[in-house]
Amino acid sequence: MMGGNAAPKDSVTFLCRSCREQFRDRPELINDAPEDDYHPWRYFAYCPVCHELVEQAWWERNLLKAWANSTGPRTAEGRQRSAANLEGHPTPEEALRTRFNAVKHGIYAQTATYFPAKPGAYPECQDCELRETICPSERACLKKTELFMKHHIAFDSRDPSALMDIHAANQAAISAMINQMFLAIALDGGPSIRQPVWTTDNKGWTKLVSFIDDNTGQRKYLEEIKAHPLLRHLMDFIHKNNITMADLEMTPKAKDEQDALKGFLDAPAGERPQQDALEFQQEQQKQLRDLRGMIERSQQSTDKDPVLIEYNQGEG
Fold first, then answer.
1. Among residues 51, 34, 53, which one has the least CA distance to residue 43?
2. How far is it between the farthest Cα atoms of the chain?
3. Of 2, 113, 14, 118, residue with least CA distance to 60
């Protein structure tokens, strides 16, 4: 029933909970664990760093249980159905994942160490689920390595869709930053900021510039009104992300252009509000024909003009 787990292991992966050291070694102590029918042994070894007695890594222990419960098909019909499940595989997503794993352990593995594993040192480490388990035993940060590999795969395959999830997250962060700018400007009193004007006398003392109001006789301080410093950055974000009213097609001009694209044009005053594009085209053709006749009649009148005829004869 237990398959490959029916005998004790000669080599086991251990994880020290004190110093977070992960190592693979021969067990120094094997205890019976009859409560775990899938693998009735538990393994212990001394940590090579802090020399404490540590237990087998929890994820490898879970794998032993998964392997014991996996049986597979036993009949010919079951094996045939299992083989049929492979039809259509690997899918494009599975092929991309396979290439990611190959690149991770291939020629780019050394380059990925530009992002060394430093648990707690990167901003992403605060909410990272790998911070206390896997990251301490790795050479490079897995999250940054994944980002690195995705970009390499996208450029190698010339497929920008591989980066769509990254760009979507970046766009969401930019939208959140724009909202924070709006809120900061509103809390500061609006798009303008008043700052007192100050000067320095010949002794090096700094003082505010003030004056006496002729109407009230009170002393007032001179203030300089400046645009809010976030306004420039806010407008840059809005224009570079194409979220202006014109980009979103929310202006009256954009609405008229949309109506024209749908096959409707504005009609002159007094007529029905809209006319379809076919009628408009027919009317334009009729006007062009009338214009051609007017040009021909004008040319005939010019040829019969006595003054022009006399002038042409004199020039000839």
1. 53
2. 129
3. 14
Question: Do residues 228 and 192 touch, judged by C-beta distance below 8 A?
Answer: yes
The 10s digit of each residue's pLDDT in 152-175 is: 778 877 887 878 888 888 888 888
d(CA 297, CA 314): 25
> Would the CA dihedral through 86, 89, 90, 93 be positive or negative?
negative
| Helix boundaries (H) for 19-91 | 58-69, 76-84
- pLDDT single digits (tens) 106-127: 544 545 555 677 777 777 777 7
Residue with tokens 């760009």: 167
Neighbour tally for 14: CB within 10 Å: 23
Q: Would you say residue 178 has pLDDT above 80?
A: yes
pLDDT, tens digit (0-9, with 9 covering 90-100), for 187-207: 877 787 777 887 887 888 888
Query: Could you tell me the sign of the dihedral formed by the alpha carbons of 161, 162, 165, 166, in that order?
Result: negative
**β-strand partners of 182:** none
Angle in degrees, CA 69, 41, 44, rounded to 5: 125
Q: Are 152 and 108 in contact (CB under 8 A)?
A: yes
Query: Please, what is the angle between helix 142-157 and helix 92-104, to 10°?
Result: 120
Statement: residue 275 has pLDDT above 70 = no
Report the alpha-carbon distance of residue 297 to residue 304 in Å, rounded.
Answer: 11
